[in-house]
Amino acid sequence: MKKSDISAFFAILQAANPHPKTELEYSSHFELLAAVLLSAQATDVGVNKATRKLFAVANTPQAMLDLGLEGLEGYIQTIGLYRSKAKHLLQTCQILLDRFDGQVPNTREALETLPGVGRKTANVVLNVAFGQPTMAVDTHIFRVSNRTGLAPGATPLAVEQALLKRVPKEYLQHAHHWLILLGRYVCQARKPRCWECSVAAHCDFKPKTPLKTPLKTPLKTPAS
User: Fold this and answer.
1) Does 120 participate in catalysis according to the annotation?
2) Which of 19, 77, 88, 210 could form a disulfide with 115 if both were Cys (CB 3.0 to 4.6 A apart)?
3) Of these residues, 3, 44, 66, 138, which one is catalytic?
4) CA distance linking residue 159 with residue 210, whole number of Å
5) Catalytic pick from 44, 120, 165, 204?
6) How confident is the model at residue 209 (pLDDT cuts 50, 70, 90)?
7) How far apart are alpha carbons 179 and 20 in whole angstroms?
8) DSSP 8
9) How many Å apart are CA 11 and CA 18, to the nearest integer?
10) 204 flagged as catalytic
């Protein structure tokens, strides 16, 4: 994708959604961290359904610890990998209390010391909670970046580094959200909805998906 197309690409996304937000529901930095940790290999919809009940009774590290492992698992058992996530979340709560006065740290190095928090999760927290221009490359961003030619790369880290170099500075803050939403609702994995994509003209994906795919053989009319 040419530089001129990259600028136009993000200008269109910005005009349509000037202030994009994560679809995870949260009301504090800790709730955001917990929700992102729980969202690995799970949908935001599923995580929100569980955390609405969980955060109503435990929305601080200490309150979460007070639930205990079985208590926490009871709230998040509808989420994939809930047993390991519950264990990591409780370990994270203890570390937050022991090392960070119960507060979510605002550096990548500190965040990645927390159990269950990898580079992607740290990038989400840094971007959403602290306004840092990071790129959390999930499956959606990885697909969109490669398919469109925006930032091709063989690994999430390669795509992340390419995005940080190629996305104009004025769009870096929200680029992560725009790309996720584009991949989630339009540039989908099996059948990208090119016919309704606002940035299709600036995309390198050649086999654009038509609105209606012609049938290979005509439908047979049922006998009357």
Assistant:
1) yes
2) 88
3) 138
4) 28
5) 120
6) confident
7) 10
8) H
9) 10
10) no
